[in-house]
Amino acid sequence: MLAVLFAEEAAAGTEITVSAALSLKAPFEEIGRSYEKKHPGSKVVFNFAASGLLQKQIEAGAPADVFASASSKEMDALKAAGLLLETSRADFSGNKIVLIAAKNASVRISSFSDLKKSDVVRLAIGNPATVPAGKYAEETLRTLGLWNDLKSKLVYAENVRQVMDYVERNEADAGMVFLTDANVRDRELKVIAEAPASSHSPVKYEIAAIKGTKNEAAARNFISIVISREGSDILRRYGFKMAPHPALSPR
Predict the structure, then answer these.
(1) Could you give the maximum distance between any two Cα atoms of the chain, in Å?
(2) Residue 178 three-state SS
(3) CA distance 108 to 115
(4) What's the predicted TM-score (pTM) here?
(5) pLDDT at 242
């Protein structure tokens, strides 16, 4: 009990920087407001971008107290580099990969196999090297046997928001993003199909504190809200899938 009280006291009035996958923007901003309300005088500063880019920023020494990624790959890389705070890492959510098109699109697409049609000229996905949604998209297309047929049509984006911009402006005939991102732009975009769960590795969001943070208590407090029932309820409202029992997992 005393340890908790000391941690709360140490966290009060501090500012923490949370580097998080861009797809987490809306729910994390809501969680950030809850954190600041629970810890008067404290402030959460967010840095949203593709998980791969955030990983490279942290490796280069960019200031961050907490990192939340849209796949395990980036978290594993930071662990291997000795940049994660032991016992702070946790799985907290999941997502789905969907095929999208603009609501005013002139090309008719109703399934993944329609992407092979000659009038489908461009398919936008995130760069698989740095954007988890792009990595899952590549896995899906390979599993469905479409990758080789579609390689010449692929347009790589730097993040999921850029994929949706390409599709909305009809600069791409279709795109592949997380379901939660598509939901945010449902006035301009429509979901055509959901990728079978077996077609790609599980979409797993993870969070951890960064080793060397000067705000460890505050970082851990923020993580505790993300993995709490309150955090789960917020994420679920935005369409995220929840793990049965999200919990801290020292790995």
Answers:
(1) 67
(2) strand
(3) 10
(4) 0.83
(5) 75
